[in-house]
Design goal:
Layout: H1 7-19, E1 25-26, E2 29-30, H2 32-56, H3 61-66, H4 71-99, H5 118-150, H6 154-167, H7 174-194, H8 198-219
Antiparallel strand pairs: 1-2
Helix pairs in contact: 1-2, 2-5, 4-7, 4-8, 5-6, 5-7, 5-8, 6-7, 7-8
């Protein structure tokens, strides 16, 4: 579970990139090519590890990640969840900025600095779908499954994984990290209730794509 928490794989892969002379920053700003490369390689590594560990325990990947039922209802449900998740995240962020403005610790989301050209937006759209929607929700499903079986149950799993999920986004600010942790908890509950990560994948990817559109509109 620790290996599949995403922190070890990103540290190793990011360290390898840096050792090869390709660090995460250039002129004080995040490097888009680094983010894209790290995200894609980490997705391949993490999904591969999940498949490896599930098979090592005699479990089927489809049963744990995709679910045993038909895909169409899961896909449709995920689409229906996109707008509510966006609305709730906006409401939570607005409430934090109105009542606890000290939580807004980052003036400008550093992700916005990556979106300077149409090609950048296209690359980032690929990342939010593959690394955001697919990788993170497959990872969440795997970890929640492990918590249910061995480490105290699904509720404990939702709490722990959501805190870790939010902590991984602290670069975007404390308020954003807390909001993302709440979204992670929501997607975790959806997985536990439906026994499929497909709807959370669709909802998560759709949420991130709408956030990307928002960034582009703000920049314009």
């Amino acid at each position: 579970m620790l290996i599949c928490s995403d922190y070890p794989t990103q540290v190793v892969i990011g360290g390898a990139f840096t050792a090869l002379g390709y660090g995460p920053y250039v002129n004080g700003h995040l490097r888009l090519a680094y983010v894209v490369g790290l995200s894609l390689v980490d997705t391949i590594a993490l999904v591969g590890l999940i498949v490896l560990f599930l098979r090592a325990h005699g479990e089927r990947v489809r049963d744990v990640i995709v679910g045993r039922g038909p895909l169409a209802p899961q896909l449709a449900y995920g689409v229906l969840l996109i707008v509510p998740t966006v609305a709730v995240s906006f409401a939570v962020l607005a409430a934090m900025q109105a009542f606890v403005p000290s939580l807004h610790t980052v003036a400008q989301n550093p992700i916005q600095q990556l979106l300077t050209r149409p090609r950048d937006a296209a690359l980032f759209a690929l990342i939010v779908v593959v690394a955001g929607g697919v990788r993170e929700e497959a990872q969440r499903a795997f970890l929640l499954h492990r918590f249910e079986v061995w480490l105290g149950g699904g509720t404990v799993g939702v709490v722990v994984t959501s805190i870790a999920f939010g902590a991984g986004h602290l670069i975007q600010g404390l308020d954003a990290a807390m909001t993302i942790a709440l979204l992670g908890a929501f997607w975790g509950v959806v997985y536990l209730r439906r026994r499929s990560a497909v709807a959370p994948m669709v909802s998560h990817a759709g949420f991130d794509l709408l956030q990307l559109v928002q960034f582009l509109l703000i920049r314009r």
